[in-house]
Design goal:
Radius of gyration: 28 Å
Number of strands: 27
Distance between the termini: 84 Å
Number of domains: 5
Low-confidence stretches: 795-799
CATH class of the largest domain: Alpha Beta
Strand order of the largest sheet: 3-4-2-5-6-1-7
Shape: globular
CATH superfamily of the largest domain: P-loop containing nucleotide triphosphate hydrolases
Largest sheet: 7 strands, parallel
Mean pLDDT: 87
CATH architecture of the largest domain: 3-Layer(aba) Sandwich
Length: 819
């Protein structure tokens, strides 16, 4: 029978008028040789068939005609429910073509209760699911029986899971499945990655990764990047100054394609652009749609199906459509504003031309003129495939505590065996005995400070095994399995019925009856807030506020920032290499006249006096999060020296410090303030990280099981959750100061909120580079956006921020023309 499987697969390919790619053949060969590994291939190249058909060929070689109830053979893990649905259809089509009677089913939070109940007793041949559902299955008492026939696990879009706690949850689940089924093979699917060896180590474990097969498809994917250039480029741009002035150009470009995805970086921006397009093209009602993560799942599903059917002219969307859902009718992608990352731009471009050999079209639309530099830099970085690495999470003990309780709730565990299993992972490979004892103690009694409260006794020793303390505790734990956390969400529903999606509680709580707001592409009138539900009716006015979602401002990635520095270096040398750089040339030439264009080996500090005080503008080009940390650090250090009150502003290019008097006048003085000596202590002091950690602790407390976010019939508000987590934080800090979750909270604040490692690298680079101090007579084109950002953030009573910004921009333009 050996060889029959591959022969049948090749015949099936031939029946469709095609043949397998070399990387698909290589993957099947490595799988059949018993190997696990990574498949790296551009979007649309056929990674799904490369991963799925290896175990199919193996089963056919063995003469296996599996019946629908023969047990689980392939487990397919995906980070998105929308991607899961698309994968199910692709796998069903392939198995039908090969005439295999295998069942392929989906399991997500949207799966009906009856299907979940059946799957709890018997899994299909192929199960497509999410990390959370795998952990839930492990928490059942019959988990070994459910997974006893498992041969292959495929983790789709591995780069999306690699750098977060969902990836750690997946990593721990995979280690547990390998204990149940030692011969199981694991394959990860990904687009281009920078840290491939590390990605394999996290997926397979550091020991197994040494033998991993890394299969690469030739990266011949052609991505054509163009920009919609504004007719006029002001030499003093500011964030959002182009705004929807580009709407007509966007609409005209949409009309040149069969179907277009219009990506924005935030959900608020997607709502605004959707409304703006309908205002100038009212006949597009029903022909364009809106898609973002806060909309109801059913609404998003309808939009996705209309896209597949080729019935939509355009969809305004966010990262909710970033990942590999195959919408083959899409032949054009537009990006509103800078994508902030190279890999993100490649992913979004890949939504068009989603077939092998097809060209992906990405049309970029600036929201401010300097973003043209980002677009040009992005083209260069994509050509060089200079994509960002995805750094694994650093030993999140909250996830480990949850996993320990999950395994206990299932079949239980022997302590030494589970510790060995956990140490086989990359993330917890160096877990110490002391840390492990703390985890067990915390799961057993909540640690020394919570021992008096029975609810925190979640596991108990029975003989030589640890099991769930009780079935009610196990059921409560299952309700909270997962690592996805968000700010308090309020459901938005029509008074007459009909669910639209969710907005954050902080937005809904500010609404008064009769207020209008724009959501889900509709104008809505707020009626009342009741039981975490905002009841609304159709609004009479087309205008209204747009919900803002916290944490939605993306920082520029290190790879894109390096490419921006490269383009500016070229411009400083007189090279303007493409249409974007030539369009921005008047701005940069004025920057060179009034100040300097920073070269790659330089950092410039501009000092300018205005009626507001003394401005100091620094341009490290490290992204807004690192600049936020740097601004706080400098404010703290200058403050210790006795400098007056300092106001800090930052963006992706640099930061502004505003003070009554000059802060420093020499390069030596500045370098002293920019030193890495005592960096950790100064950053901790500068940002009141204790309070930041206190707020961040809510996420950790939820994952570790201290908080129960919902109870049947009793939803809890974000304020209630924050108050509860804050109480836990204070109790632990006072009575259990050595609690490792407190240390984790501080560490995560430093790295995730401030990108501390990037800040440290920026300071080290500044010390090694040429520091140029310059005092322009007026605000330079690079400094002006920072000044404008501060003005926009202030509440001015005498005049609107936009009016003041426009007025100064006109004055500076006149001064530039006069000189």
């Amino acid at each position: 029978m050996k060889g029959e499987g591959k022969s049948r697969v090749l015949k099936w390919f031939a029946s469709q008028g095609r043949e397998p790619f070399e990387f698909q053949l290589e993957t099947w060969k490595e799988y059949l040789a018993g190997k696990s590994g990574l498949i790296l291939a551009p979007t649309g190249m056929g990674k799904t068939l490369a991963a799925a058909l290896g175990p199919v060929i193996e089963a056919m070689d063995e003469g296996e005609k599996r019946k629908r109830d023969a047990g689980l053979l392939i487990l397919w893990i995906t980070p998105l429910r929308a991607l899961a649905s698309d994968t199910v259809e692709s796998l069903r089509a392939a198995l039908a073509g090969l005439e295999l009677p295998w069942s392929v089913e989906l399991r997500t939070s949207d799966t009906t209760a009856s299907v979940r109940k059946r799957q709890k007793e018997r899994l299909p041949t192929v199960l497509v699911t999410t990390p959370e559902s795998i952990s839930l299955l492990i928490s059942y008492a019959n988990s070994s029986v459910l997974f006893k026939s498992l041969r292959c696990v495929v983790v789709d879009e591995w780069h999306e899971l690699l750098g977060n706690k969902r990836g750690v949850q997946t990593e721990l689940a995979l280690a547990h499945l390998r204990k149940i089924q030692p011969g199981m093979r694991t394959w990860g699917l990904s687009a281009t990655m920078a840290n491939i060896d590390e990605a394999a180590s996290v997926l397979l474990g550091p020991d197994a990764a040494k033998e991993a097969a890394i299969v690469r498809a030739p990266d011949h994917k052609s991505i054509q990047i163009s920009s919609l250039l504004p007719e006029r480029v002001e030499r003093f741009p500011w964030a959002g100054h182009l705004g929807t002035r580009m709407t007509e150009a966007v609409a005209a470009k949409v009309e040149t394609a069969r179907s277009t995805l219009i990506f924005t970086n935030t959900r608020s921006q997607s709502e605004l652009w959707f409304r703006a397009l309908l205002e100038i093209r009212p006949d597009w009602i029903g022909r364009i749609a809106l898609h973002h993560g806060s909309l109801d799942r059913k609404l998003r599903g309808r939009v996705e199906q209309l896209l597949r059917d080729g019935k939509l002219l355009a969809v305004v969307c966010t990262s909710s459509l970033d990942l590999g859902v195959d919408f083959w009718p899409v032949d054009q992608v537009m990006q509103i504003g800078s994508p902030k990352g190279v890999l993100r731009a490649m992913q979004r471009a890949g939504r068009s031309g989603h077939q092998p050999g097809a060209v992906s079209q990405l049309v970029c639309v600036p929201t401010q003129a300097l973003e043209l530099v980002d677009f040009s830099a992005m083209r260069h970085a994509i050509a060089e495939r200079a994509v960002e690495p995805r750094e694994p999470a650093a030993m999140p003990l909250d996830v480990l505590v949850q996993h320990v309780v999950t395994v206990a709730a299932g079949e239980g565990f022997e302590e030494e065996q589970l510790l060995e299993e956990i140490r086989s992972t990359h993330t917890f490979h160096n877990l110490t005995d002391e840390q492990w004892r703390w985890v067990i103690d915390f799961a057993e009694r909540g640690g020394p400070s919570l021992v008096a409260y029975p609810r925190f006794a979640r596991i108990v020793r029975q003989g030589n095994r640890w099991v769930a303390f009780s079935q009610p505790i196990a059921r409560m734990h299952r309700m909270g399995i997962g690592t996805i956390t968000s700010d308090g969400s309020v459901m938005v529903k029509y008074v007459s019925g009909g669910f639209l999606g969710t907005v954050e509680e902080s937005f809904a709580s500010k609404l008064r009856p009769g207020d209008n707001f724009v959501f889900a592409g509709r104008s809505l009138e707020f009626v009342r807030l009741h039981d975490m539900t905002a009841q609304v009716r159709r609004g009479k006015s087309k205008k209204g506020s747009v919900p803002r979602w916290m944490g939605s401002r993306l920082p520029m990635s290190a790879s894109l920032a390096e490419a921006v520095r490269f383009r500016l270096d070229q411009a400083a040398g007189g090279e303007y290499v493409d249409e974007e750089m030539r369009k921005i040339r008047p701005i940069l030439e004025l920057q060179a006249r009034w100040s300097v264009i920073p070269r790659r080996g330089q950092v410039i500090i501009e000092s300018v006096a205005t009626r507001d005080g003394q401005h100091h503008f620094l341009f490290p080009f490290q992204g807004r999060l690192a600049h936020e940390g740097l601004a706080a650090l400098l404010t703290y250090r200058f403050g210790k020296r006795g400098s007056g009150p300092i106001t800090a502003t930052f963006n992706d290019y640099g930061l502004e410090l505003l003070s009554p008097q000059p802060l420093a006048t020499t390069a030596e003085d500045w370098l002293g303030m920019l030193s890495t000596e005592g960096l950790v202590q100064d950053v901790l002091a500068s940002l009141n990280t204790g309070e930041l950690a206190r707020r961040h602790f809510r996420e950790i407390a939820r994952i570790a099981g201290l908080l129960v976010t919902t109870r049947p019939g009793a939803p809890r508000s974000a304020r209630q959750l924050q108050a509860s987590s804050g109480l836990f934080f204070d109790v632990l800090r006072e009575f259990d100061p050595g609690n490792l979750l407190l240390e984790q909270a501080q560490r995560e604040v430093l790295e995730r909120q401030l990108e501390f490692s990037r800040l440290e690298a920026a300071l080290q680079r500044i010390v090694e580079q040429e520091l140029i101090l310059i005092s322009p007579v007026k605000l330079s084109p690079l400094a002006f956006p920072l000044w404008a950002e501060r003005i926009q953030s202030q509440q001015l009573r005498l005049e609107k921020a936009g009016d003041r910004i426009e007025r100064l921009a006109r004055q500076l333009e006149a001064a530039a023309d006069a000189r």
